[in-house]
Amino acid sequence: MKVFIAGLGLIGGSLALALRDRSLADEIVGFDASEEHAAEAVRLGIVDRTADFAEGVAAADLTVIATPVDTVPMLAVKALNRVGDRQTVMDVGSLKAELCEVVSMHARRGRFVAAHPMWGTEYSGPSAACHGAFEGRSVVLCDTELSDGDAVAAVESIFGALGSPVVRMRAEEHDLHAAYVSHISHVTSFALALTVLEKEREERHIFDLAGGGFESTVRLAKSAASTWVPILTGNKYNVLDVLREHIHQLQVIRRMIERDDAEGLRAAISRANTIRRIIR
Amino acid sequence: MKVFIAGLGLIGGSLALALRDRSLADEIVGFDASEEHAAEAVRLGIVDRTADFAEGVAAADLTVIATPVDTVPMLAVKALNRVGDRQTVMDVGSLKAELCEVVSMHARRGRFVAAHPMWGTEYSGPSAACHGAFEGRSVVLCDTELSDGDAVAAVESIFGALGSPVVRMRAEEHDLHAAYVSHISHVTSFALALTVLEKEREERHIFDLAGGGFESTVRLAKSAASTWVPILTGNKYNVLDVLREHIHQLQVIRRMIERDDAEGLRAAISRANTIRRIIR
Known about the structure:
2 copies of one chain form a homodimer. By secondary structure, the first copy, chain A, is α/β, with parallel strands linked by helices. Chain A folds into 2 domains: about 1-170, Rossmann fold (3-Layer(aba) Sandwich), CATH 3.40.50; about 175-275, 6-phosphogluconate dehydrogenase C-terminal fold, CATH 1.10.3660. Chain A has helices at about 10-20, 35-45, 55-60, 70-80, 95-105, 150-160, 170-200, 205-210, 210-220, 225-235, 235-260, 260-275, and strands at about 1-5, 25-30, 50, 60-65, 90, 110-115, 140, 165-170. In chain A, strand 1, helix 1 and strand 2 form a beta-alpha-beta unit. At the A-B interface, helix 7, helix 8, helix 9, helix 10 and helix 11 of A face helix 7, helix 8, helix 9, helix 10 and helix 11 of B.
């Protein structure tokens, strides 16, 4: 299988490594809007060579769009404009509703598969690509009834080989759930980093005192603006909805602390503890 | 050295294991208000045997108080009431201001060392005790000028052997910084868990979609109410101060998303990214 990957950052790069590690691709050709990143991806052995977008798509059995989410819909259309009946185009982005709407009436809609592997780290660029990514993490496929059966089967067999269980849902449903389990965590983490940077003027103390708990809640604050600004604005209404609830929960806890309401805090923490059922 | 540990949970239990692993104690005697936990600690080989509090303190070279923070000041006084010139009492709790005030005028104040190892996990009880805890994590010693030199030296040599760099600060200063780098992370995590549990009615989707980012920001929400209610209420004013700033930061981000202020979001995220300097 010849694979073309547009966007050679964390996700595109890690997917290239995974395909190579499982011998799923005969050749991996890459494209990145940053010439520096493209050259770095070749140097790191992530892709065999680079090509321009139109040429890369035309020659590939599978095109993967792994660019920031605000650029995915137009690239998906441009890729579909260039593929035939046996070629497949897949994205791996964090947002699906607008994307699936944009491609919905394309004459080659059937060749498109909307995929979101639920994996990432706080790092970006080709040098952030890791071996073993995606393993054990779900991949969401959206609106698969609009994709040709063989295209979906090709994508499913790749993620099956990578050890990623497939979950199917509607694009709108995906964006709602992604706001809850991914986007809000990033907003919280950015805000927590800003809080500490704002209030803790003596940075030495953060260094000295930060334990594992702080690191784990603030880790995502290292994530790139180029990735996250388009996600937060693109998923605006869902993110605002969750954010409103999150601020409300913090205000409830704040009032309990203000009133020395130990009983209320105990009940709230015990309820929060039930998250154990979900993230063992 | 004979060590007596009161409170055989995550911290007390892990300290017992660390002392044993480094051959720093000839005998480790334990006490826990829960008979079940005390018996479990013996069964797990965390302590050699149990004793009642008064007896345990009297016979020990070093008494460690590792109980929930609301019980530490009284136990510190009771321990100091029972020690002589060559015995040391240390606590390992998350709050220091009230504790240091309570013991400040005790006739044996010099035998007390206020210590806070900056390590923990979201689990509790004797079964949560881990080998290798504390290594590479700082330990804060507070108000050491009020402790006898030999008592501080004894505590420093223990943490030196465990691989924990020692940081000294005033008790009030400790509680302020602890609010920033530890307590707020727990509040955020509890609130995030409650947000998701409140809004995400279809729990199956949390299971399916939760990636590493969600797990890392919500992990602390599994922490026990019995540990955290006393910390949050005991450090009330510092926690409220940080919480107010954190809610403010979230509201600023919310307004930027509402207004599609990509430029503002980019600037905020880039500033949040500077946390990289601190938690590499």
